[in-house]
Amino acid sequence: RIGAARYDTMTTSVLTTVLTTTLGFSSRASPQFAHSALSGARASTFAATLSAVSRTPPQLVHRALSSAGRSGPTMAAVDPAAFEAVVKARYSCKVYSDKDVPDELLRKVLELTQRAPTSFNTQPWVAIVVRSEEAKAKLAEAMMEGNRPKVLTAPATVVFGADMQPEKLLADDVPDFVKQMLPVFVEQCSTPEAWAFKQVGLVAQTFMLAAAANGIGTCPMEGYTSIPDVCDAVGLDKARYSAPIVVSLGYEASPPPEKPSTRYDFAAQIFKDQVGKPF
After folding, report:
1. Is 254 exposed, middle or buried (0-12, 13-18, 19+ CB in 10 A)?
2. Which of 12, 168, 184, 241 has a CA-to-CA distance to 175 between 20 and 30 Å?
3. How does pLDDT run across 217-253, given as a tens digit for each residue?
4. Strands 217-221 and 156-163, how do they pair?
C-alpha cells in the first residue's frame, strides 16, 4: 500500500507550489527561496499553516520542507553513450537459445523495472513471470498463433497486469491532494483501463531496457486470443486487472539484425512548439 512515507521527494515540490500560491509568495518562487523563507523563527508557523491548508500530516510537511533547496543527486554520473548503446541494442528478439536466464539476473532486471515512473507513484501494476512448462503452455493457448512459439521457447515470459482500481493502492495516511487528484487524472484518460495501460507502458519499456542492459533479449506482444484469456492464464482478477502487454525474455539464438528496424524521418515525427513546425 502506498503510504505517506513514499511521497517525500514528490511532496517537496508539491508543497512548495502550495506554499508559493497559498501563502502569497510569487508563483515563480524557487524551492531555494521557499526554503529560505521557512528558515528561522517563522519556520514552524509556516509549516503549521501549510499542513492545515494542504491537509497533509505535519511530520510529512516538516520532512519535505527540510529537503527543499538542497542539491540532491544529479544525473551527471550517467554515461549518455552507455545509455544510447542500450537503447540501440534493444530489439524484438523472436527466437531464443536454450540458455536459461538465472533467477538472480531476472530478479535484478525486475528490481530495476520497479523504478519506472507512475502517476503519483501509485505503481498500478503487477508482473507475472511465467517460467514452468505447464504455465508456458497455458499462456501460449491465450496467445495468437504467431506468438505461441515465443512463449513456449523463451526461458521466461512476463505478463504485465494493469490495475484499473488504483484507489485501492492508497493507504489512509496518503495526503488528501493525492486522493483528490488521482481520480481526475484517471478520468482524463477516458477509462480506468486506458489510464492503467499508460502506466504499464512506462513499466514495460523500463523492463525491456533493463534486460537489454544485461544482455537479454525481449519481445513485446499484444497478439492474444483475448485479454480475458491472458488474465485467466495467469490468475489475474479480470474485475480489477487488464493485461496490456506480454514480454518474452531470453538470450538470442542468433545475432541481431545488421540493420535496425526502420523509423519515420525525424522531421515527420518531431516538432517544435506545435505540429508542423520543424524542430
Report:
1. exposed
2. 241
3. 999 999 999 999 999 999 999 999 999 999 999 999 9
4. unpaired
Report the interhelical angle of 192-213 vs 80-89 (nearest 10°): 110
pLDDT of residue 53: 59
Say if residue 240 is exposed, middle or buried (CB neighbours under 10 Å; 0-12, 13-18, 19+). Answer: middle
- Going by C-alpha positions, the residue among 149, 147, 169 that lies closest to residue 253 is 149
DSSP per position, 33-53: HHHHHTSGGGHHHHHHHHHHH
pLDDT, tens only, 178-199: 999 999 999 999 999 999 999 9
pLDDT tens figures, 132-181: 999 999 999 999 999 999 999 999 999 999 999 999 999 888 999 999 99
- In whole angstroms, what is the distance from residue 151 CA to residue 141 CA? 10
Residue with cell 538470442: 252
Q: Which residues pair with 160 in a beta bridge?
A: 127, 245
In 3-state terms, what secondary structure has residue 190?
Answer: coil
Sheet bearing 217-221, strands edge to edge: 125-130, 156-163, 241-250, 217-221
Q: How does DSSP assign 156-170, residue by residue?
A: EEEEEEEES-GGGGB
Cα separation, 151 vs 230, in Å, equals: 12
Q: What is the pTM of this model?
A: 0.76
